[in-house]
Amino acid sequence: xGKHDPRTPLIPERDQDKRPVMECVGLGIDFGGLTAVDxxxxxxxxxxxxxxxxxxxxxxxxxxxxxxxxxQPTRGSMYLEGIDTRHMNTMQANKAGLARTFQNxxxxxxxxxxxxxxxxxxxxxxxxxxxxxLRLPAYWRSERIAKERAMELLSIFHMQDMAYHxxxxxxxxxxxxxxxxxxLATNPAVLLLDEPAAGMNPAETEGLMENIKKIQETFQIAVxxxxxxxxxVMNICEGVAVLNYGRLIAKGTPAQIQNNPKVIEAYLGTGGxxxxx
Length: 277
Prior knowledge:
The protein is an alpha/beta fold. Helix content is 36%, strand content 22%. The protein contains ten helices and ten strands. The protein has helices at residues 60-67, 90-96, 113-120, 129-134, 137-156, 172-184, 202-219, 230-236, 254-258, 261-267, and strands at residues 22-31, 34-44, 49-53, 75-80, 83-84, 98-101, 190-194, 222-226, 239-244, 247-252. α3 (113-120) runs parallel beside α6 (172-184). The longest helix is centred in the middle third of the chain and has 20 residues, at 137-156. The protein is globular, with a radius of gyration of 19 Å. It starts with 21 loop residues before the first strand and ends in a 10-residue tail after the last helix. Residues 1-8 and 127-132 have low confidence and may be disordered.
């Protein structure tokens, strides 16, 4: 993976002796001659909560689109658990261990909460089309196991009583939670959250923070999030990367980022400092 070592200073001490679950080395993409992201280098520990922040238009969602193979990079590499993802498509990246939620909620609104989670469990279904059509025992066994697993996931987030409600009928905060549960159902190594607190009130945001910590502790996976709510970022992220005009301008702990002159300068045009962004 070349001489560049992007590991420090983000990876927490408990993960230092383990291989990063995800690494980006020199990642970049151009659109029609315009550079949207350039020389993006980062490494995330297997159980790290890492934040990606930056002013509007900095390229944060483009990064997520590169990681999940919505876009193929113009240059650079991305490794997931040591495996080069350059020839993967979005579905293959998901099966390899990347799951994502979106800034705009993308649930199947007319399906039940339970069915939404069952959709996420498709990676673990062990029957084939023939067994499903013929309703062979393997089909019913897989269906039963999947339903039990879905209810288990819902119960972790206190949503089991909503299992048979339509997803579109849930309050906004619960819809956000359901989208995260559905992503977790794919059994990811890295959970990507794109502005998970968007549209939430302070109480819902506090609940989200507790749930993100619960995900780290319960599932022992990495969480990589884009977020504008600096209260959330500075209180739950162990490492923070700052993007501006498609390039990383800083990486470090929340305290280091809050006091970084380059970061403060980048945010001056959006409200006067990182704490207010």
